[in-house]
């Protein structure tokens, strides 16, 4: 699948992985881009840095159902269809489960998961109107392997994987493909408060995720062979993976303490 001339909606396209995807999309020839993010100023600045591209700037919180409805309505009104939906916006708040504030549990589910369900729902008729529709969902390595202190974040990301599999099978007769990407630690604002870990660059994660979309790959998993081995072990023999986690428990607790980007 080529991206040239495609009409694309991306959530969280103003910073981090999303911003790098915007750059890549434009390099690949996308000329019509709808972006949802909360901060109006960064939306404006981003659109001004690509004067050749026609932007639909939708400022608002994806946790707000009206923002999602408005996005789909504006796309229907302006373009009449949508080729690519990229569900990228996400937030994190780590910590021992019993200490996480209730609001941060609700917000992580609303932004990381419910928003994806609803935005996808609203965009399906638009994607069906495309000659070749596609969806890219950004999950996380923590959606493949459940880690302590990320029970909420990780379970929203695991839900995205399941949703992606269901949607791929449901939309196959309509020529709409679904790709799900699982970055590991990536050097963005989201990771500023996470201590001590080698990270991928957001450029690499953006490029590889979009390659996956273009090649209609089902899953794009980051972290190399080691991660693949860990995922298999976690699935086939979870108690063996429990032992691995026991060995790094204190270190991981320390690294994740205060890890919050909301
Ligand atoms: N960085 C990592 O290590 C990593 C690893 C695995 C998976 N991921 C996933 O990759 C995706 C992108 O992460 P990132 O690291 O690039 O994050 P980031 O640097 O924090 O950027 C987040 C983007 O999403 C937007 N956003 C956040 N909350 C929003 C909300 N409620 N409504 C609308 N827009 C919102 C932000 O803009 P505004 O603040 O203006 O709204 C920003 O454009 C997320 O789904 C994340 O979970 C990241």
UniProtKB/TrEMBL annotation:
The yes or no answer to whether the keyword Oxidoreductase is present is yes
Tell me the PANTHER family matching this sequence: DEHYDROGENASE/REDUCTASE SDR FAMILY MEMBER 7B, DEHYDROGENASE_REDUCTASE SDR FAMILY MEMBER 7B
Keyword flag Oxidoreductase: yes
Q: Return the protein name.
A: SDR family oxidoreductase
The similarity comment for this entry is:
Belongs to the short-chain dehydrogenases/reductases (SDR) family.
| Highest taxon listed in the record's lineage | Bacteria
Entries under Pfam families matching the protein: adh_short
Q: What is the lineage of its organism?
A: Bacteria, Pseudomonadati, Bacteroidota, Flavobacteriia, Flavobacteriales
CDD domains in alphabetical order = SDR_c
Tell me which UniProt keywords the record has, alphabetically.
Answer: Oxidoreductase
């Amino acid at each position: 699948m080529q991206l040239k001339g495609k009409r694309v909606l991306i959530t969280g396209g103003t910073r981090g992985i999303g911003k790098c995807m915007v750059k890549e999309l434009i390099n690949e020839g996308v000329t019509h881009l709808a972006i949802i993010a909360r901060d109006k100023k960064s939306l404006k600045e981003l659109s001004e840095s690509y004067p050749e591209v026609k932007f639909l700037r939708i400022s608002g919180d994806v946790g707000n159902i009206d923002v999602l409805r408005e996005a789909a309505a504006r796309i229907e009104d302006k373009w009449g269809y949508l080729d690519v939906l990229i569900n990228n916006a996400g937030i994190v708040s780590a910590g021992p489960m019993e200490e996480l504030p209730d609001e941060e549990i609700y917000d992580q589910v609303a932004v990381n998961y419910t928003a994806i369900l609803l935005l996808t729902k609203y965009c399906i008729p638009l994607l069906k109107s495309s000659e070749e529709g596609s969806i890219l969902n950004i999950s996380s390595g923590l959606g493949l392997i459940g880690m302590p202190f990320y029970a909420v974040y990780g379970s929203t990301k695991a839900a995205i994987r399941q949703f992606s599999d269901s949607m791929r099978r449901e939309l196959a007769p309509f020529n709409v493909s679904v790709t799900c990407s699982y970055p590991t630690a990536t050097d963005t604002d989201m990771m500023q408060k996470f201590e001590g870990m080698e990270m991928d660059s957001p450029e690499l994660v953006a490029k590889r995720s979009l390659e996956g979309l273009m090649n209609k790959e089902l899953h794009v998993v980051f972290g190399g062979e080691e991660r693949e081995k860990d995922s298999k072990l976690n699935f086939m023999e979870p108690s063996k993976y429990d032992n691995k986690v026991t060995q790094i428990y204190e270190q991981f607790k320390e690294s994740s303490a205060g890890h919050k980007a909301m």
